[in-house]
Structures are given as structure tokens and as C-alpha cells.
């Protein structure tokens, strides 16, 4: 009986802990709000300004990554250049805790595979996320951990336009291939968005700004 009682007590305690954890998680999720889009902060820079202008109607492009290969084999260097991926880079004016990245590709150009990279405190780039099979024009990436960074980039590994570009630039005949240009297409991006969670300090600051604006308006109306 004593052993059975201990087992029952353990089971009850486990259920209580599980329920408490679920409740805490629900309260945490419900209490969190997404911040404004950090990419629209004044002073933010991108390798194509059109991807951070806040307008989904304007479309920018990624830029090819320059090959870093060196050595005497010019053929390998040339092949690496032709097959180089492209990337979109966004640099914030100050580091922010990033929890969410949204990339809107153009409606006629689908990004199928990409990596997300961020800079650390020393400015070194680190890959933190891989998207291996995307089928949507809106790519909504939730990071599994908060990343405090001022620099973030999406390196594009494959797009729906790659096949057409390869057919144009690669010729086969007599047992060899002749490559006359890039084999990976530039990605077309309408908007690159970055979000964190709203903190209590942000809420207090926003409330204070609204109150100041209202006080200024009341003063002008009373004159």
C-alpha cells in the first residue's frame, strides 16, 4: 500500500507540474507582442534599399556572393563564380534581439532554399537557420533562440528561376559542358522584415510619447 501510495502521489505531482507548465507557456505566449519591423528603423542599410522600404510593391534583388577561392586552377575558380549563391543583407543601426524573420519574395519568383546568417559581437557571420524546402512567397521564419545582432543576411541557395538560367548558360556537347554565365538566378525580394518581442520598456516609452503628443496638442488648441 505504501508503494502504491507513493506511485499515486508521484503521478498526481507530475500532472500538476505539466498543467502548471502549460498554463505558464500559454500566459507567456499570450503576453508577448511582436515589435515593430526593425528593418524600418532609421539608419538601417541593405545591399538593395528596395527590400527595406516598407512597400511590398517595390522589388529589389539579391547580390551574388564573390568567390573567395584562390590558387592556380582558374577553371575551378570560374566554376565557383558561376555557381555562386546570392544574398540579401540588412544592417541595423544598433543590435536588436531578433526572434522572427519574414522575407517576401516577388510573386513571380519563388525562393526555394536559403540560409539565415547573423553577425556576432566581433562582426563574424554565423549561420543559424536553414530552410531547405520552401513553397510560399512569404517566408516566415521563427528562430528557436533569441539572436542579439545588428547584421542579418539571407543567403539564397535555390530559386524557381535557376533552371531557366542554367538552360540559357550551359551548353552540352561532345562529352563536355560549356558554361557561359551564372547558373543560379538572383532572388527577387519585395520586403525583408525583422522582429523581436515588445518589452515593458518599449511599452512605457510608447505610452510616454503618446502622452507627450496629446499634451502638446492640448496646449496648441488652448491658445
Describe the 3D structure.
This protein is α+β, with helices and mostly antiparallel strands and 223 residues long. It has a single domain (35-198), classed as Galactose-binding domain-like (Jelly Rolls). It contains 4 helices and 10 strands. It has helices at residues 2-31, 74-82, 162-169, 200-222, and strands spanning 45-46, 60-61, 63-64, 86-105, 111-119, 125-131, 138-159, 170-173, 176-179, 188-195. Strands 1, 2, 3, 4, 5, 6, 7 and 10 form an 8-stranded antiparallel beta sheet that branches. It starts with a helix and ends with a helix.
The CATH homologous superfamily is called Galactose-binding domain-like
Largest sheet: 8 strands, antiparallel
N-to-C CA distance: 84 Å
**Helix percent band:** 25-40%
Count of extended strands: 10
* pLDDT < 50 stretches: 20-30
The structural domain count equals 1
Order of helices and strands: HEEEHEEEEHEEEH
What would CATH call the class?
Mainly Beta
What's the structural blueprint in terms of helices and strands?
Blueprint: H1 2-31, E1 45-46, E2 60-61, E3 63-64, H2 74-82, E4 86-105, E5 111-119, E6 125-131, E7 138-159, H3 162-169, E8 170-173, E9 176-179, E10 188-195, H4 200-222
Antiparallel strand pairs: 1-4, 2-10, 3-4, 4-7, 4-10, 5-6, 5-7, 8-9
